[in-house]
Each structure stands twice: as C-alpha cells, then as structure tokens.
Amino acid sequence: MKNIVVIGAGTMGNGIAHTFAQTGFKVNLVDVQEESLQKAMKTIASNLDRIIAKGNLTEEQKAETLSNITTFTRLEDAAGNADLIVEAATENLDLKLKIFAQMDEIAPENCILATNTSSISITKIASVTKRPDKVIGMHFMNPVPVMKLVEIIKGYSTSKETFDRIYKMSENLGKVPVEVNDYPGFVANRILMPMINEAIETLYNGVAGVEEIDTVMKLGMAHPMGPLQLADFIGLDVCLAILNVMYDGFKNPKYAPCPLLVNMVTANKKGIKSGEGFYDYSESKKAEKVSPMFVK
Ligand SMILES: NC(=O)c1ccc[n+]([C@@H]2O[C@H](COP(=O)([O-])OP(=O)(O)OC[C@H]3O[C@@H](n4cnc5c(N)ncnc54)[C@H](O)[C@@H]3O)[C@@H](O)[C@H]2O)c1
After folding, report:
1. CB distance 145 to 18 below 8 Å
2. Full DSSP string of 142-186
3. Which residue of 14, 90, 113 sits with most ligand 1 atoms within 8 Å of its CB, as the best mutation to test the pocket?
4. Rounded Cα–Cα distance for residues 275 and 216 (Å)
C-alpha cells in the first residue's frame, strides 16, 4: 500500500495524515471545508516542529513529510488511485453511510476502506458498499502522532486478509494494534465514555467543581489528565455522539448522556475546538476552568 486517502481534516484527520506522511506514504487529505484543510496543514507543521525541538526529526524530514500531503475538497479528485482510505469525518451515521457509498464508487476495486469511527457499527457502514470484506475499523487515538494504540475492529464480513493487512500496516506506522470485535463503542469508548459521563454527572449533581473532579482523578487514580479536560480534548460533540450510539445500540440507560453534556453541545461549548468546554481555551484565559453549571 502506497497511496493513502484521509477523509476529514479535523482533530483526528490531521493526526492520521501526519502519521502516514511521516512514515513515507503519499497522503491525499480531503475535507469539504477548505478552512479545515488549511488549519490541518498548520497544525501538522507545528506538531512536526515540536518533534524537531525534541531532537527526533530534522528540518529535511519535516519538509519531506509536508510534501507527502496534498489537500483536496472533493473526494472524486483524491481517491482514483488509493490503496487505503481512512475516513475520519464527523461522527454521524448518515454522513458516514453517504461517504462510504461514494468511496465504494470511486476507489479502485482492491482499495481497503477503513473508518476511524469511535463507536458506529463497522458492519452497518460496510453494508452500503459492494466490498464489505474490505471494510474495517482503524480507530486511532488522539493525539495520533503520539498515541501508540490502534483498535482494529472487524466487521461481520471483514476478511482475514483485510484484517492482516491493516494490522501489519498499523505496526509499520509504529503503532500497537489491538484486535476488537464490532459492538457499540468497541473497547476504548465503552469503558472511557461512561467514566467521562459520570464525571459530568458528578459536576451536574453539584458533588464537586470542574478542577476538583479532575484533581481527584489525576492525583487519586494517576490519570495523566482529568476526565473533564479529556472530554474537552476529545470534543464534547464527539463524546455526546458516542454515548448516543452506545445508548441506542445497547438500549441501556446507563449510557444515557448527562443533560449537562447535551446542553453544552447545544450551546456550542464543544471543548478545545470551539474555544470553551469545561475549561476556557481563549488566549487570555489559557485553559482556566469554567463553571458550566452557572451562567457567566
Ligand atoms: N476526537 C477524538 O479524540 C477522536 C478519537 C478517536 C476517533 N475519533 C473519531 O474520528 C472521527 C473524526 O473526529 P474528529 O474529532 O476529528 O472530528 P472533527 O469535528 O474535529 O473533524 C471532522 C472533520 O470532518 C469534516 N467533514 C465533514 N463532512 C465531511 C465530508 N463529507 N467529507 C470530508 N470531510 C468532512 C469536517 O469539515 C471536519 O473538518 C469521528 O468518527 C470520531 O468519532 C475521534
């Protein structure tokens, strides 16, 4: 596999494109918004600078990595000779079904179609294609260039050949792949999201404030980051979408999203990507805590 297409240039798409490009693959990065593509290229450049500062990359390697990435706003212009497409667009079932039907039309017959979805059924996504054996989940973690784990999710019809190729590819990227079956939330989010939701519920119930909850989990459980700040990093809209998929998929009230999370997303407080979530990320505030239970 040489030619990679990454669909979606948001939080995850830019990291996935970065990781493939730094390993030497040619990457076509696609987003419907030109602005997201420009922002992604800036983020990749500054993340490469960070790696240079640590002494792990040269200026030449940075230039080569950036030159491996070409940006597109239309999938049909980007996917004609793809060997692997990794979809990392917004976490929305209807959108993903539409994108996969289009990918199936455009991509070469042997191209593997992977999704970075956090929770949506791989089997369902594969069902809109004529190649369900070549559809697979490739769930990277945020920030992609740093985090080692990739959950490799087998849909009901994913072939062993597809699984083996993606497993090997993940190792070639310097990642540690883990085999997982296709059930809502897979492993990572099935365990993580109830914890994040419970942290939000704890805040909602007035048990403790934002910093207090995060401090308990950091100092008490040795988590590198508190659950509320982690939710801000993931994106509160993404957390809400994942919880809804698990709630619908298992028909179990324990996955019901906390009303405070629903309210915050409705008010466009989505965490880092919108500038405010449980913390305020504006330049002047620099990640100062916000008290979302009280109107400022
Ligand atoms: N944020 C995380 O920590 C995280 C971690 C693992 C997996 N994921 C999953 O990765 C995927 C992307 O999440 P994200 O956090 O990067 O979202 P994001 O909101 O940061 O970015 C999504 C991008 O997709 C683009 N997009 C929307 N429709 C498109 C289309 N038809 N074609 C091309 N681009 C399109 C948007 O313009 C946006 O730039 C989701 O499935 C999410 O569940 C997220």
Report:
1. yes
2. SSTTT--EEEEEE-TT--HHHHHHHHHHHHHTT-EEEEEE-STTT
3. 90
4. 24
User: What's the predicted TM-score (pTM) here?
Assistant: 0.92
End-to-end CA distance of the chain: 52
Q: What is the largest CA-CA distance in the chain?
A: 55
DSSP secondary structure letters along 265-285? HHTT--BGGGTBSSEE-STTT
What is the residue-averaged pLDDT of the chain?
95
Q: Within 6 Å (CB) of ligand 1, which residues are found? A: 7-13, 30-33, 36, 88-91, 95, 99, 116-118, 139, 142, 234-235, 238, 273
* Contact indicator for 203, 236 with CB cutoff of 8 Å: no
Enter the tokens of residue 193: 């999201």
Q: Does residue 32 share a domain with residue 129?
A: yes
What CATH number does the domain containing 220 carry?
Answer: 1.10.1040.10
Q: Which residues of the chain have pLDDT under 70?
A: 291, 293-296
Give 257's DSSP letter.
Answer: P
Ligand 1 atom with least separation from CA of 235: 1
- The length of the chain in residues reads 296
Cα 150 to Cα 8: distance, rounded to the nearest angstrom: 18
Q: How many domains does the chain have?
A: 2
What is the structure's pLDDT at 296? 42
Let me know whether 170 and 221 are in one domain: no
Question: Strand locations in the chain, DSSP E?
Answer: 3-7, 26-30, 69-72, 84-87, 112-115, 135-140, 149-154, 176-181, 279-280, 288-289
**β pairing state of 69-72 and 176-181:** unpaired
Q: What is the pLDDT of residue 289?
A: 75
296 domain-assigned: no
Closest CA to 83 of 162, 18, 137: 162
